[in-house]
Design brief:
By secondary structure, the chain is mainly α. It is about 70% helix and about 0% strand.
Length: about 90
């Protein structure tokens, strides 16, 4: 963005270069928009930033959920192992 004001490129060149440089996980949602791709570079930039934010926000939430599941499973496994080790003694 810092070079946009210094470059004397038109909207279509900026738009094309910016879109081509986006990651697939950002390009894909843009390309399937019901209203179509934005026509202006600034609108494309805003949409890409919004999608990027949602992508990382979801990724963080999913990572946190997986971490919590892993910790819960480890805790359960540890408790199960401890219970079988210290369980009631059986007479032979």
């Amino acid at each position: 963005m810092c070079y946009v004001s210094q470059l004397d490129w038109g909207n279509s060149i900026l738009y094309h270069c910016y879109y081509q440089g986006l990651l697939n996980q950002i390009q894909d949602p843009i390309s399937i928009q019901k209203q179509g791709k934005p026509a202006l570079f600034q609108d494309m930039y805003t949409l890409a930033m919004t999608i990027n934010h949602h992508y990382w926000e979801c990724g963080h939430k999913c990572h946190y959920a997986r971490q919590m599941e892993k910790e819960a499973l480890e805790s359960y496994s540890w408790k199960q192992g401890k219970a079988s080790t210290f369980g009631p003694a059986t007479a032979s």
